[in-house]
Amino acid sequence: MSFEYKVTGGDFTHAGYASSQVKKMLKQLGVDSTIIKRVVVCLYEAEVNIVAHAYDGVINIVLDADNIFMKLTDNGPGIADIEMAMQKGYSTASPEVREMGFGAGMGLPNISANADRFIITSEPGRGTSLEITINLSGTVA
Amino acid sequence: MKVEEICSVLNGQLVCGSNMVNREVTHAFASDLMSDVLTVNCSNLLLITGLTNVQAIRTAEMSDIECILFVRNKMVTPEMKDLAEELGITLITCPVTMFRAAGELYRAGMKPLF
Question: What is the pLDDT of residue A141?
Answer without folding.
Answer: 45
